[in-house]
Each structure stands twice: as structure tokens, then as C-alpha cells.
Amino acid sequence: MLVSATEMIKKAHEGHYAIGAFNINNLEWTKAILAAAEEAKSPVMLGVSEGAAKYMCGFKTVANMVKEIHDAMGITVPVALHLDHGSYEGAKAAIEAGFTSVMFDGSHYPFEENLAKSKEMIELAHSKGISIECEVGGIGGEEDGVVSNGELADPEECGTIAALGVDFLAAGIGNIHGKYPADWKGLSFERLEEIQKTTNGKPLVLHGGSGIPADQVAKAISLGVSKINVNTELQLEFAAATRKYIEAGKDNEGKGYDPRKLLKPGCDAITAKVKAMMEEFGSAGKAE
Ligand code: 13P
User: Fold this and answer.
1) Could you give the CA distance from residue 59 to residue 63 in angstroms, rounded to a whole number?
2) What are phi and psi of 183, to 5 degrees?
């Protein structure tokens, strides 16, 4: 059975480690990440963007597919199916479809509107027994080829949204989605400490978890980060392993590539990477 992320994040926060939220894009990635969690004996969150859900034929297909794969693989560690960067409509639809955790990202709205909509979504999610993440301030990233330095969330705004009863809060501390530029200034621990204070020690979420140096990850966890989102790093691993397989020319003697064999090296690379990250985040062994 898939579970809400409330309990696993609470334990991670108390135990000073973080739960990885790894993005899934298809059946193969789902299997690869679940295999890693089971082997590492780690709780895990499977993140699904609205784009990925659309690609997989909608929230309901995703929820059913993940539940069936979870059961068929005999997964015993806690698994939450989480909507990543959900819109107002998307979060409602994902809840309806059986997701066990959602992010409502209202960071692009004026703050008062983000506040009102977050309040409504928190009440809705909790009435269904599922966990919810909200966001204050945008997370930087690449737009039109221009990479911005990550935004810093306003600590007072973070405190106001935290007080609504959100389970975990995404707040910009200089983090960026995608690859970090060579001149990236790093995470702002000063801002993280301020946010920790204004939110009364709410579990915090670090987006853009690919490519952050291990010492900064460890420090962020020690200052209250309990969930770390990873996508780009898995894409890079998958692409490199798949490219290597194709370059080796194993196309089944001119009959074309067996799709299962073609995707295997990439999926194995994802499993290895996710396990390594679970060790790094400290969640490995926590589901024993
Ligand atoms: P990366 O792609 O930078 O790992 O970020 C993932 C993320 O934060 C998803 O919300």
C-alpha cells in the first residue's frame, strides 16, 4: 500500500536525515527507483510532475500503475506517490486520482493568493489523510537559456504558510532546478537558519537536489531539510548508460534493439545512483 509522506518526513526530521523524492517518468523509472529503495531499505517518495503525468496518460493511470508495480515487486519499505509542483487544479485532480502526497506550488501567485489557495489545499489534503507541501518564493532554474542564481524565500512569508499546518515547506535558499552554473554562489545557510526560526522548525524541502556538493547537502539536513528532490541527476545517468549501450552496437544483429535490453543499462544506472543518494541523505537502512 502506498502511504502518505507525513510519517516518513516526521521521522527524518527528528532523526536528522532526509527522504529523497525522485521523479518518475515511466514504468521503467518507477521500477528502478522502487528497486533501489527496497535494496537500500529506505523510505522513498516518487515525484510526478504534471508534464510527466500527462505523458503517462493522466494521474489515474500513474496512481494505478505505481500501486500495481509496488505490489507486484513486493515492496516492503514505505512509498509515497507525490505530485511535484502541482497547480491548483492539478493538485485537486491528483488527490482525486489516489496520490498519497501532493505539492501545491502557488509561488507564482501574489503572496495573499498563494496563502489563500495553500490554506484551501492543506485542508483538502488533510481531509483525505494525505501529506501536502507548499512553496514560498520561486526556485530558480534555467529559463530561455538564462540561468538565474536561486531565489531566497522571505522568512516571514515562510512562517505564515508554515502556520497553516503544511506538512513540509519548499523555500528557496539559493537552490536551482537543473545543472548548477559554474559561478553558482551555493546554498544560503543564513537564510535557511532564518526560515527554520520563523517556521518553528517545520520540515523543509530542498528542490534542485542534483549536483549540490555533499557537504552543503549535509549542512542543509542538519538545519532542517528533510526532503530532497532529484531529477536531473537521474536523467544524466540514464542518458549516459543508454548512449554507451547504443555505441557498443548491440542491436541484435541487425534486427533492431530489443526495447527491454535497450532500457536496462539506464535503469540499472538509476538504481545505483538512487541507492548512493539514499546513503548520502542518510535514509538508507531507516526502513529496516
Ligand atoms: P533537479 O532536476 O535539479 O534535480 O530538481 C528536481 C526537483 O527539484 C523537482 O521538483
Assistant:
1) 6
2) -100, 20
Residues 60 and 206: their CA atoms lie apart, in Å, by 27
pLDDT digits (tens, 9 = 90+) for 196-222: 999 999 999 999 999 999 999 999 999
Q: What is the DSSP string of the chain?
A: ----SHHHHHHHHHHT--EEEEE--SHHHHHHHHHHHHHHT--EEEEEEHHHHHHTT-HHHHHHHHHHHHHHTT--S-EEEEEEEE-HHHHHHHHHHT-SEEEE--TTS-HHHHHHHHHHHHHHHHHTT-EEEEEES--B-EETTEEPPPPB--HHHHHHHHTTT-SEEEE-BS-BSSSPPTT-----HHHHHHHHHHTTS--EEE---TT--HHHHHHHHHTTEEEEEE-HHHHHHHHHHHHHHHHTT-STTTT---HHHHHHHHHHHHHHHHHHHHHHHT-TTTT-
d(CA 197, CA 114): 21
275 CB less than 6 Å from ligand 1?
Answer: no
Per residue in 224-253, pLDDT tens?
A: 999 999 999 999 999 999 999 999 887 777
231 lines ligand 1 (CB under 6 A): yes
Asked if the model's pLDDT at residue 126 lies above 90, the reply is yes
Q: Which three cell numbers stand for residue 108?
A: 507564482
Query: Ligand 1, from 29, 143, 231: best to mutate by most atoms within 8 Å of Cβ?
Result: 231
Closest ligand 1 atom, CA of 235? 2
In short, whether 30's Cβ falls inside 6 Å of ligand 1 is no
Q: How many residues does the chain have?
A: 288
